[in-house]
């Protein structure tokens, strides 16, 4: 069966490219979080973050980088076509490559961006509330997911989407009969 319409979907290599940049940002954030306010102790032996003001928590370099990453995740959910790493891939990298062997449904990667936003958002909120270790743990979880996607093409958020689709929670009105 042939079709005269253009194929629909997105280039999975672009997703891996974006995941590679995101994983680098998250790795730096994990390192900043492990050496910064989130894990530091005071001279009295308590957690520095518990005694820090909200302004100090906001201005922590690990918080600022994770906030930027969260905004990039949100951008990927709201307007994936204009998200910076996708634009960079389409303008600089993709023209140097041949066409992709296959295209991917854009819904699972978009859902994965939302999962990334929720994970890092939780770390940001807990940092503001003064919870020790929350920020580097959230950044670490997001890093593992981004790295698996970049290095192996395994998108954990996409797998979650497909599982939720199978049980009928997302993507279709009713679950498919097995």
From TrEMBL:
It comes from the Bacteria. Residues 10-166 form the DUF4395 domain. It holds the Pfam family DUF4395. InterPro entries: DUF4395. The keyword Nucleotidyltransferase does not apply. Keywords: Membrane, Transmembrane, Transmembrane helix. The keyword Transmembrane applies. The chain crosses the membrane at residues 17-38, 58-78, 115-135, 141-164. This is DUF4395 domain-containing protein. It comes from Microbacterium alkaliflavum.
